[in-house]
Structure formats: C-alpha cells, structure tokens
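Input.
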Amino acid sequence: MSLSAARPLDPWRWLGLTTLQVMALTILFGAPLRFWGLPLPEPVFAMVPAFAWAVIRPSMIAPFALLALGLFMDLLWGSPLGLWALSLLVAYGAVLSGRNMLVGQSRPMMWAWFAAACAVAELAGFLFTRLDARASPSLIGLFWQFLATILLYPFAHRLIDRFEDADVRFR
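Output.
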C-alpha cells in the first residue's frame, strides 16, 4: 500500500486541520524575523483553503472557518476587525459562484483562477481599508502580498487533490 493511498473523508481533516495549519503559518510568517535585512513576506495563507474549499464542494462549516481565520488575521496583524474575514468571504463567494467552470480545468488554468480569487480578496481588502482609514494603503505592499499569496497555489492544488482522492464520486 502506497503512502498516497486514499484516506477517509473526515471533515476535521480537510476543514479543522487545514484551519490550524493556516493559523500556525500565519503566526510563523508574522514573526518579526529578518533575513538579509528583509522581513518575511506576509502572504494570505487563508486564501488556500478559501479557494480549495469552494472548489471542492460547498460546506456549511467552511464560511465559518474562513470567518474565524479572517478574525484571527485581523487580531494578529492589527487590522480593523472584520477586514480579512469579509475579504476572504467575498473571495470564497466569488469562487463558489464560478465553481462549475473551475471543476476539471488544467493546473495552469486553476492557478490563473486562484490568482483571480486572490485579486478579488486583495481588492476587497484594499477598498475596505480605504473606507475605514480614509487613506490609501501602499500599492507596492499590496502587490508584494498578492505576489506572495499567488505563489501558494500548489498548496491549494494539493488540498483539492487530497479531497478528490478520498471522495468516491471522483473515481
């Protein structure tokens, strides 16, 4: 039996464990560490499950987990409470509404859709920040965060593949 054999489809594994992993990575990358004088990038790790959960299948728990992740990120990064929660839910809703188009696409095309979902979340965060602070956030910082986030697509692809391997409807 290989290590990549199908595992049972447990909600705690693809929802709960993923949420805890995203929280741990967000804390790790939020640490004030510097390498060669540069700080660590702050990608939005929560975009991985926001995209993957919407593509995998609609779930009643996923929006609440994204809400919790967004509120956690707001508290950790010191942003207005609800900024990232609302941004993640907007991106989740956008992906969920186009879910039928996304299923069965090639890997490069899915990466492009992931980048579009990240752009929706970043744009929502940008607009909500402008409304709250009545000032424009740094576009350069926004671009670097967007770039660091879209590089996380292989993790979303892996999450989608793990689910498809466990779900008998995809065999």
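The chain has a mean pLDDT of 85.
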